[in-house]
Amino acid sequence: MVVERRGKSTRKKQVRLYSPLVSVEIEADDKPGALELPNVNLSPEVVPYAFRVNLGGWAKTYIGAEGYVGELLERIVKYDPKRSIERIALRVGLFLHFRPTTTTSVQQLLEGGKIDVPVRNASRFRDSFEGAMNRLVDDGVLGGWSYAIEDDSLPTLLWAEKWLRWTIAITPPDIALKSADDSIDDDRDPVSVGGRSVGKRHAR
After folding, report:
1. Residue 28's CB: how many other CB atoms inside 10 A?
2. CATH 1.10.10 domain locations along the chain
């Protein structure tokens, strides 16, 4: 909360800055230590002299991540948010990267990516969404995707409401599946015959 002064009057102004990917702290004269947004109250007399911006909780998990995790994240953040399809791919890709799933709905995917469905040109938006999902597959961020529905017919009017409820099946990318297979191989114990390791067996 920030108190904004206009002439002789003041008014409270709500400042919201919170993201699991970004952490912001404020240093001020009358504040002991650093205060992290959004739980900061500043009066007109308090002038912050330093801001500390760092990676948030989600991002810290992936600092220095090795293997496919870092590689997939690098592919996702290269999308241009100024382009419609790439903007959707960026948001959906990040959401699925941090909250992986194999089954979801169109609406849950859009809400997770903080993507609003436009009131107008819904057909164009659906094309962009499907184009973004295909782009994620082409770039190896997803292994595949499809609508997991029996009835793919849509009404002429208000069809978007039904479309948003459609279930989507998502396949993990090949690079993630390969990493999982490698992990299973690493967990296998060597079978010893005559003092020599001749193979591995899966530990159950």
Report:
1. 18
2. 68-172
